Amino acid sequence: MDSLEFQNLLEDHFFTDDLSESLINALAAIGRKVPITSGSVLFEQGSRHDCVYVICQGTIRLEMNVPGRGEIPILTIGAGELLGFSPLFEDQVMTARAIALEDGLAISIDAKELMELCEQNSELGYRVMKKIAGAYAKRLVATRLQLLDLFEETTTYEGSGG
After folding, report:
1. Phi first, then psi: what are they for 8, rounded to 5°?
2. What is the pTM of this model?
């Protein structure tokens, strides 16, 4: 994918908002466009996956399987957000299931290539890891809110007297 196409896809998005043209060019060299079909599963919880996605269009729901309750929605993400960054950390499996809620488009970046690029270019490495930390923080807040909902449901049920 050429850098102009990459820039056009990600224009004004969270992932590229503070990247220089040279850093965008470096990412464009290892990225590829991936169409997303509504209802498709991008990855499963507990599976190994080899790429990271930057969502350009569409929305993706992250779900976690909770024993006895099934798939519980955790978070919905959209354009400009990162998806599936667990492969950037050695021996990590996907912590959720990702399912497309509508047709869309993503840029897929091979995790190993991205890590090599980040190691070669400390500025890019810093900026990418900063974006990942922000995405983790957002997911942590969403998970906490889900836990509060689960806790409320449990105490309401146990304390209902009925």
Report:
1. -65, -40
2. 0.81
